[in-house]
Amino acid sequence: MLAVLESRELADAKAAYLASLERLTLAKENFARADALIDKRIVSAEAHLEAKTDYAEARINLRNARQKLFALGIGEARLNEITEEDEADLTEYVMRAPLSGTVVARHLTRGESVPTDREAFIIADVSTVWIDISIYAHDLERVESGQTVTVVTEGGLETEGRIGFVTPNVSEETRTANARVFLANEPMRLRPGMFVTARIAVSEEPADVRVPAAALQNHEGRDVVFVKDKEGRLNPRPVTLGRRNSHYVEVLAGLKTGDTVVTDGAFIVKSQLAKSGFDDGHNH
Length: 284
Fold this sequence. Notes:
Elements: E1 2-3, H1 7-38, H2 45-71, H3 76-82, E2 102-106, E3 119-124, E4 128-136, E5 148-153, E6 158-166, E7 176-184, E8 196-200, E9 210-212, E10 217-219, E11 222-228, E12 234-238, E13 240-244, E14 248-253, H4 266-276
Antiparallel strand pairs: 1-3, 2-3, 4-7, 5-6, 5-8, 6-7, 9-14, 10-11, 11-12, 13-14
């Protein structure tokens, strides 16, 4: 969160600082003149002491004005810039955030003053986002830090991350715990507040042969994949399936390691071959 100072308070402090600078310059010149004339007995000792006192007070006032600006968040570099600004710019200033990021909320309108106990803008670094996954109590034993998570947004964007940690407590209201996933958010397509679907890989089991789920087609009630033969022709081959997840299907029979199968566009291949009648033994 970024808390900003009331503009009038800062403008008054800047004006007081500039006025202190002017008074110091004048007091310094008066004291220098009096100091030069005291030996010539042109000015009295009383006038010399008064000029010296005014000079000392002007330095004290300037120091206090500087400290006031420092307390309001003005740094040394910005302090030097103030003396170069026009008087018309005294009520304008740059709000500098303590971190770089994106403005995610604005609580300020033109002409409105902002007190110190209210935010003008809220800035967040959304280059990395957190995703909280609700885990039911009966699934907690299967979920742990380091597991791979596939996250899918409502718009279909899919990305992968890993669980950073799982909260040790279960909510009394929802009877769930939270698993937190940290994701890089480039190019800023994940937005705070979005609802997503998460799939957690709770275990890994080897498979001798697997194919992408998109490669599977159904023909006359049987699962088939299209395999390219040595002549480059595509032939439907029945397969026996085993386990599956959201991306892959295990093939128990019908394929061997090294077979080339159609993945993307398998349905189009099926449609084209059906037109030419791939059941007559002439597959082209």
